[in-house]
Amino acid sequence: MKHRAVPEYVVAAVEAAEEKQAVDLVLLDLGEHASFTDYFLISTARNPRQSQAICDEIDHQLAKAGCKAKHLEGYHQGEWILMDYGFLVVHIFSEKARGFYDLERLWRTARKVPREEAR
Questions:
Q1: Which end of the chain is least crowded, N or C, by CB within 10 Å?
Q2: How do residues 38-67 score in pLDDT, each as one tens digit?
Q3: Cα-flanking dihedrals φ and ψ of residue 41, to 5°?
Q4: What are φ and ψ of residue 25, in 5° steps?
């Protein structure tokens, strides 16, 4: 089965998260499962400062590419930061919050995009 190419904006977000050592990065292709976004980028940070650093780097890299977040929440607490770009929703979790909300289970029918496709 042929999969659609991952847009460069999404690749830029993945690379930005990797740059700030985000843990357990998962990119879900929601194109056939949701009308509100095409992709979820889910990651874990070791502490609130790292969550904020990951968020800042993603925001910086996507702003350079001409994309601005439509919505941002959770930045000051750093337990679960949500960044909504329309085509991409980024979730940066603490380990505890990620386990509690378990988005991968909720969206288990979505395709997990292999790392090599998101580079």
A1: N
A2: 999 999 999 999 999 999 999 999 999 999
A3: -110, 115
A4: -65, 130
